[in-house]
């Protein structure tokens, strides 16, 4: 359930899309609340771009329902497109036009008056720190600047929902951080954001809620805390013993340990159940006449939770990479 | 704001980005001008017979090629997707793209026509009919170019597809020989070619007479081809866009 009040701004139910024998999207259902920053995660080939393309009216669905602002995306695509913006992973602006002309042309297509589109282009160029480059052809910009103009172009008509497909992919650290800050500002100004990213640290930092899609199926949905809680038992246990320990002996004595690694005398044990593992480790230490000098546990990050969910997903639902 | 105004914005942008560039204008004019000069040098007394046909050929090749190149180029660069994301219907996009391609074809044909008038004393008996012929031809051929481009991904594929019908119809539509002088078995083929009606309208515009006697028949036939092309382009574009 969304933590955001009121009716959802995006509602998807049983959405299905096939490409020949391949089912890219398999009865996917979810909803996004108004004003939410929603993360749509999944490995390559999970169906993320297919979902975005259907929601943006670029692709027909084969079954299911999809509405944005209560409007069916297939029955009235023009009305839906007036309310949404998309910044795709690959910039799709006109390379020969200047940044300003690109933004003003899109303003023309979205029905803005001449005064409004000039003002909006100026405002966005200032907001995205592109004022000095306003007359530069789009093709002459750096990758980071192109990403910024592409995101700015999705905002020309002040949409209610913005789809951002891998917005920081390929950017250097300062550019990515700057863009993340802008995304947060845009969301705080009331725009709903639908974000797809492979950067799970980014998703954890930005998103109110995330959904994990694997081979076209929704396998997890909730706040990042809820997703982490789902794999809470799968923690890393760090233990320092008073003497040397053989990895094989430790693993055979503790069935709750999934994998071990030892760095500078500290054992990092990936466990499936923290309580059982800790009990087994203490028993092992007593039996081997060892003292436990230090012990700590680390909660699973969103990235670890994502990987655990992927491992738990049936092989028929697994993608081909992260 | 109406979809027609948005179509005009699309047209204006395309003219700014593509059609207004000097290399394209030169490309559109060079081939028909050289062909016309060659015909004139060979037979100065009879060059006029082929003049309307070569103007129509300029429209056919210029419009189909340019419309197809622009669409396939935009498909590859992703900018067509940008257009599809805007709140415009597929019909609006087709109208905008066809209008700019038609404007380009009509402009190059007009330059050729004025050149023929000024340099080779070509008469213009019915300017209005000549203009109608250029407009109907320009619009129909642009839509055919859009149809071909919507069905393929690469420019060369679009050209190959179009050449299957462009070259054969050149020889059955009265471009190089008036329809009345074509062999009898070719005449039925001429009647199903849209180029025939454009050539005959231009011929009426230049000489005040054509194969059909009055300009109404070729005008109605060319208009019918325009309507059919509009619907075919709509179907092809929708299939290509939402695949």
TL;DR of this structure?
The complex is a heterodimer of chains A (322) and B (243). Chain A has eleven helices and 14 strands.
Main sheet characteristics of chain B: none
Indicate the structural class of chain B.
mainly alpha
Mean pLDDT of chain B: 91
What's the pLDDT, averaged over the residues of chain A?
87
Strand content of chain A: 25-35%
Q: Per DSSP, what share of the residues of chain B sits in E-state strands of 2 or more residues?
A: under 5%
Rounded Rg of chain A: 24 Å
Instruction: Summarize the biggest pleated sheet of chain A.
Output: 6 strands, mixed
User: Total helix count of chain A?
Assistant: 11
Largest interface: A-B, 26 and 22 residues
Query: How many domain regions of chain A?
Result: 2
The total strand number of chain A stands at: 14
Poorly predicted runs of chain B: none
CATH topology of the largest domain in chain A: Rossmann fold
Protein structure class of chain A: alpha/beta
Which descriptors apply to this entry?
heterodimer; A: 322 residues; alpha/beta; Rossmann fold; Alpha-Beta Plaits; 2 domains; 6-stranded mixed beta sheet; 4-stranded antiparallel beta sheet; 11 helices; 35% helix; elongated; B: 243 residues; mainly alpha; 10 helices; 80% helix; 0% strand
């Amino acid at each position: 359930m969304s933590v955001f009040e009121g009716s959802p701004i995006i509602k998807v139910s049983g959405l299905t899309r096939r490409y020949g024998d391949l089912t890219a999207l398999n009865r996917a259902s979810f909803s996004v609340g108004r004003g939410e920053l929603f993360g749509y995660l999944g490995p390559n080939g999970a169906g993320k771009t297919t979902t975005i393309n259907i929601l943006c009216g670029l692709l027909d669905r084969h079954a299911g329902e999809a509405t944005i602002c209560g409007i069916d995306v297939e029955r009235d695509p023009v009305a839906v497109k007036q309310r949404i913006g998309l910044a795709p992973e690959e910039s799709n602006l006109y390379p020969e036009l200047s940044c300003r002309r690109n933004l003003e042309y899109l303003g023309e297509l979205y029905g803005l008056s001449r005064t409004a589109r000039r003002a909006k282009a100026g405002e966005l160029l200032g907001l995205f720190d592109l004022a000095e480059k306003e007359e530069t052809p789009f093709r002459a910009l750096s990758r980071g600047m192109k990403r910024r103009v592409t995101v700015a172009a999705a905002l020309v008509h002040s949409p209610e929902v913005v789809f951002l497909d891998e917005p920081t992919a390929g950017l250097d650290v300062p550019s990515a951080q700057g863009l993340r800050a802008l995304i947060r500002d845009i969301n705080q100004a009331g725009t709903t954001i639908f974000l797809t990213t492979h950067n799970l640290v980014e998703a954890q930092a930005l998103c109110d809620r995330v959904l994990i899609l694997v081979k076209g199926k929704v396998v997890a949905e909730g706040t990042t805390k809820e997703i982490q809680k789902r794999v809470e038992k799968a923690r890393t246990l760090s233990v320092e013993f008073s003497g040397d320990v053989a990895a094989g002996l430790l693993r055979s004595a503790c069935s709750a340990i999934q994998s071990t690694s030892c760095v500078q005398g500290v054992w990092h044990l990936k466990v499936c159940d923290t309580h059982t593992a800790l009990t087994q480790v203490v028993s092992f230490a007593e039996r081997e006449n060892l003292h436990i000098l230090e012990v700590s546990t680390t909660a699973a990050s969103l990235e670890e939770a994502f990987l655990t969910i992927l491992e738990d997903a049936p092989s028929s639902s697994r993608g081909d990479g992260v | 704001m109406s979809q027609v105004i948005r179509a005009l914005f699309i047209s204006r942008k395309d003219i700014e980005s593509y059609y207004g560039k000097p290399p394209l204008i030169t490309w559109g004019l060079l081939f028909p001008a050289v062909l016309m000069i060659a015909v004139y040098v060979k037979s100065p007394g009879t060059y006029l017979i082929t003049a309307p046909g070569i103007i129509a050929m300029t429209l056919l090749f210029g419009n189909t090629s340019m419309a197809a190149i622009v669409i396939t180029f935009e498909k590859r660069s992703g900018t067509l997707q940008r257009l599809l994301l805007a709140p415009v219907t597929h019909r609006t996009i087709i109208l905008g793209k066809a209008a700019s391609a038609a404007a380009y074809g009509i402009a190059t044909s007009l330059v050729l026509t004025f050149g023929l008038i000024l340099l080779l004393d070509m008469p213009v008996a019915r300017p209005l009919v000549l203009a109608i012929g250029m407009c109907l031809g320009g619009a129909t051929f642009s839509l055919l170019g859009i149809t071909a481009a919507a069905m393929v991904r690469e420019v060369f594929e679009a050209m190959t597809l179009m050449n299957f019908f462009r070259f054969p119809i050149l020889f059955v539509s009265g471009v190089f020989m008036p329809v009345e002088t074509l062999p009898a078995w070719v005449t039925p083929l001429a009647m199903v070619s849209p180029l025939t009606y454009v050539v005959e309208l231009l011929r009426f515009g230049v000489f005040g007479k054509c194969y059909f006697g009055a300009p109404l028949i070729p005008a109605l036939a060319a208009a019918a081809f325009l309507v059919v092309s509009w619907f075919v382009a709509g179907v092809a574009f929708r299939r290509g866009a939402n695949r």
